[in-house]
What does this fold into?
Amino acid sequence: MDKLISDEEYLRLLINNTDDPIWLVGTDYKIIECNKSFKKWVRCFIGLELDKGDNVLYDGLDKLYLEKFEMCYQLALSGRSFRSVEDMNVDNQLRYTTVGFSPVRDKDNQIIGVSCFARDITEQRKHLLKIEEQNTALREIAFIESHKVRGPVATILGLQQLFNTDDPGDPMNIEVLEGIRKVSHDLDIIIREVVRKSNDIALQP
It folds into this structure.
């Protein structure tokens, strides 16, 4: 008996020695076991702690979250293991959390509950969003370079072929040079746009 109690104490120390919420839910949605991080995590978005014996589908939970979590528990109780990414408003700040659900089976392979864990992935998520923003900016730059720049360059190349090098005084040369000047001005604006977008990417941390 002492050995059993000792094992339970070690297990409790193990699950409480992490910042990640961990909890075990029965088929009736009541909490069988949970760590301190779970209690703190739940308090952040429902305003109170849930503990052993409480229904994890607390009535005060936002309806959207309540329905989604109920669906997740049901899916796990049907035998599926999976992860879900949740965006939660904690202290008026948007936080991203990955939540894992896995069915728990007894010695007869019957599902008796769901083991769950959560992990804050806000910083990773923000980093991915920044990468997506940078990729979008790079695609815009590539579009500018492949479409907007090509037109003015083609125009300049065409105009320079019209320049009469044999007779620099040809009146047509004045029109050609004026056309090149206008197109060069347009090209300069496009290049400035590319430089600005490139700087925006470089300035992002």
Remarks:
- The mean pLDDT is 79.
- The chain has six helices and five strands.
- Helices lie at 2-16, 36-46, 63-77, 122-148, 150-162, 171-203.
